[in-house]
Amino acid sequence: MADQVTYPGSLIAVDGSRAKDVNAAANAIASALKASGVECAISRWDASGLFNELAEGARNDRNISVRSLSLIYAADLAFRLRWEIRPVLEAGGVIIAASYIETVVAFGGSCGLDEQWIRQLLRFAPEPTIHGRSKERKTQRPWKRRTDRGYCEFAAVMLDVSAPKRASHAARRVMISKLDHPRGHKAIELDAKGVQAVVKRTRKKATGSRPAAASQQSSRPRSGRK
Amino acid sequence: MARTPSARRIRKLIAERERSRGLLIAFEGPDGSGKTTQRKLLTRWLESSDHQVVSTRWASSPLVKPMLKVRKKIRTLSIEEYSLLHAVDVRHRVETTILPALWAGKTVLADRYLFTALARDAARGLDLDWLLHAYSPLLWPDLVIYFSMTPEDSRRRIASTRAPHFYEAGQDVTGIEDPLASYGRFIDRVVKEYNNLSVVFQFVTVDAGDAVYRQHTHVRQLVEQAAKRPWLEFSEEAVEEWLIKSHTLEA
């Protein structure tokens, strides 16, 4: 089950507690890579549309647990791996996954779910070549309750609609502290310097390998507020 | 957010509920083995003896059903996606239908339970260890009635009634175009997996080849003799998680 395959391409994982920052970091890496002559694609959260359909279907019934949401995240990630991530990796290209494993692990952990359970669940996903972390902004604020932005914002809507803002804020702080100390590998903080470091490492690996003509395969960011 | 009650208090509550809680009975077996017929007969019999009965069917969670239906129709699911969406279905039904009913003292009849997913997904080549992990924490049924039949009989019964659907026939893994031919090959693997699971999870077998009334008599006997699998011993984590999430403790 575990993805032990070594791919010729590079997978850059970008995780964070706020989707806006994650997407901005992914875009910054993509722009910097393109400027240095390396083509890349971005695989974004909910490319499968599962969460979108869930939001539509669960308008009147938001009785869902963080465990179920983690399972749906895993299904979405399986979709992204099949259609967006693995094809690029197999072709020797560069793909940015925004978001990837650490986001769901840290979020689940902040809600009291066993992090090891989530890691085992997602063991079908390949290890990223580089693990980046978006620079956390507006850390004093809770998650925006929006179903169209990112996983944490979506979960904030679905999990506890009646919770006071401070509860959501506390959970976000816990999540940030978990992202600060991921298990097994150190994440690069994706400020301007971090982005350049990622580009440098990626270029080094990409030199000599075939660039992927994958720009068109990028999943689009979710459309704006409905 | 409510304060999480102590583990000791939760254990005490679960232990106190053990006597009055309902029984969870799972009906398992290959397609065409007569599970639904027997489940309906048992429902009627239990209701006639003043039991409150809740039935829950496979892939029926209102949350997941529309997603699964569309994706099955356009045949777009990978093995992992198929498996994970069914895991969401089971989890959601456990949390919103099965556990609330059991807690309230009702008998729950599950027309297929997680063993269907384990058998089918393992037959599709997924690692059983990973599957069990995806379905954990497990809510163990008190009784699993397995309607046993040979793959050939299952194929014959299905062929006489309808053409199996794409995923039901396992066409996503066999690659055989004819649904019935594919089903014949796939069900062979599924039955093998069921046989392995029956040992681990202590299924009680009913011969699906018997006359309907004989099977029903047998099922009645099994239900009358069924003993509860203590929650604290078998399903503590699943019940505890539900109790905390559903705020039942505050009530």
Give a summary of the structure in a few sentences.
The complex is a heterodimer of chains A (226) and B (251). Chain A is an alpha/beta fold and 226 residues long. Chain A has eight helices and five strands; from the N terminus they run βαβααβααβααβα.
Question: Any chance you could write out the topology, listing elements then pairs?
Answer:
The complex is a heterodimer of chains A (226) and B (251).
Chain A: E1 10-15, H1 19-35, E2 40-44, H2 50-57, H3 66-90, E3 94-98, H4 101-110, H5 115-121, E4 130-134, H6 151-159, H7 165-180, E5 188-190, H8 192-206
Parallel strand pairs in A: 1-3, 1-4, 2-3, 4-5
Chain B: H1 7-17, E1 24-28, H2 35-48, E2 53-57, H3 65-73, H4 79-103, E3 107-111, H5 114-123, H6 128-135, E4 143-148, H7 151-161, H8 171-174, H9 179-200, E5 204-207, H10 212-225, H11 231-234, H12 236-246
Parallel strand pairs in B: 1-3, 1-4, 2-3, 4-5
Helix pairs in contact in B: 1-12, 2-10, 5-6, 5-9, 7-9
Description:
The complex is a heterodimer of chains A (226) and B (251). With 226 residues, chain A is α/β, with parallel strands linked by helices. Helices cover 47% and strands 11% of the residues of chain A. Chain A contains eight helices and five strands, in the order E-H-E-H-H-E-H-H-E-H-H-E-H. Chain A has a five-stranded parallel sheet, with helices on both faces. In chain A, helix 1 (19-35) crosses helix 8, helix 4 runs antiparallel to helix 5 and helix 4 packs across helix 7. The longest helix of chain A has 25 residues, at 66-90. In chain B, helix 1 (7-17) packs across helix 12 and helix 2 (35-48) crosses helix 10. In chain B, 57% of the residues lie in helices and 10% in strands. A five-stranded parallel sheet of chain B has the order 2-3-1-4-5, sandwiched between helices. By secondary structure, chain B is α/β, with parallel strands linked by helices. Chain B is globular and about 55 Å long. Chain B has twelve helices and five strands. The A-B interface holds A 1, 48, 50, 53-54, 57-58, 61, 63-65, 67-68, 71-72, 74-75, 78-79, 82, 112, 117, 120-121, 123-124, 160, 163-164, 167, 170-171 and B 1, 4, 62-63, 66-67, 78, 80-81, 84-85, 87-88, 91-92, 95-96, 126-127, 129-130, 133-134, 136, 241, 244-245.
